[in-house]
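Recall the central idea of this unit: under ordinary conditions, the amino acid sequence of a chain determines the structure it adopts. In this exercise we apply that idea directly, starting from the sequence alone.
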Amino acid sequence: MIAEIVPPGTLNQLFFWTDATAIREGILAVAALVVFLVTAPRGRRWLSWLSISLLALSVIPLIAVIVFPFPAGADADSGGGHGLGHAHHVHRFLLVASLFQSCLLLVVVCIWERVARAMPKIFVDILRCVMLALALLMVLWDAGIDAGELVTGSALVTAVLGFALKDTLGNVFAGLAIHAEHPFEVGDWIQYDANQAHIGRVVEVNWRATKVITLDEAYVIVPNGQLAQASIRNFTKPDSWSRRSIYLITPYDVSPQRVQRIILEAIRGSFGVLEHPAPSVVTSNFTDRGVEHWVRLFTNDFDKRDRVDGMARDRIWFALARNGIEIPTATQSIRLTQLPSPALPEPAEARVARRVESLKRVGIFAGLSPGQLDRLGMEGREWRFAGGEPVIRQGDPGESLFVVLEGGVEVSAQEGDGVPVVITTLGPGGFFGEMSLMTGAARSATITAKAESCLLEIDKATMRRVLEEQPTLVETLGRALTARAGERSTALARDGRREDPPQPDLFQRIRDYFAM
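Accordingly, the structure predicted from this sequence is:
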């Protein structure tokens, strides 16, 4: 009957091809698979799907030989029998691969898991790939093919693929590191960045990414490379319980110890609150609203933490209300202050009038008419100096006179490299710089503001117009200059310095300087 369906030459090829080695490998593969299915736990038998699939695929080359017979006389070693030889090698590879997979499962599941924790799936997948590679190398070696030549010839292709898949490979190695360090496992609640919304339960860790389901039932896929670089918070390890924190504020007129007793009694037996570790309450801060209390409780129901916190808050509110303690609301005390109106710029008329009042107290200007005083007040320039700030320095050139409007100044002189000698101090109504104004001489003294001071500067052009209108002012200014020179000489002589040489006729110097 078989001879009528299958040509005789095909049967000869089939019997030649299925040699004793292939038969032994097939028997061993089936035996290893049966042993695993018998000895493996019921929940782990599904891991044998790859071994069964490889064993089932090994029949396909046999069917191919029957359906597509090779020419008569062809064998695995003849030049015309390459197709038969290739089918034979594929058949052997599938049998050897199935055998290696079953042996791997026997070691990993039936032996390893009985003495240690279950090996992570990613490690099992890597070992499976290694077994497939070993089976391929073994068959290639028996076929007389040097596997090293294949590796050398595919070096460039490997480099290109490695560059293109660098991110994927990074995620793979990161996944290996995660499984080696065990920062979390499937079923753990983790937070993988600073965002509170990114808290979820791990449902799968594969080659490329970790899959997490958040409380919002969002399915999040996080690349392993991102997890390897992040600070991961595991709320389930090392203990199954986690701590929750609730903050509330009570009035200052209620004792903190009393509030703490009320809170602890209120949350005892609340949904999800554990008795061990026991909850606690501490006074954490004193705020504008009142005393802030930090309630710390522990729960195993991390996935229901919102409900745990909410029901604990409900109990606290009712307990405080029963004891007449009201949670203070945020209040603000507002104080209204009428600010003064912004200062308006001083009118020109008022500014001139203020200056004229100060000029009237200056002795050398006593004989001036109101119009001449107005001219000085209008054309003069007003300066303000800070306390300790020099106004003029001895030896500097100058052609102006200063009148003290506010504050005060100190007059000092220095001979050579000696120590400066204080000659006098001037207050409002005082004046200085008249020698430089009237004769053009260099400054004979240093003037320093003793406090914040306001000074009025009168220059040569303004004084010329006043002298032209009232020439008799020359004698008044000359007498003032002579008196000031005497004061300076007396002060220097008192300090042991030489006196100033006698001054020439000041009246004539003033007339010559102003060309009068």
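The longest strand covers residues 242-250.
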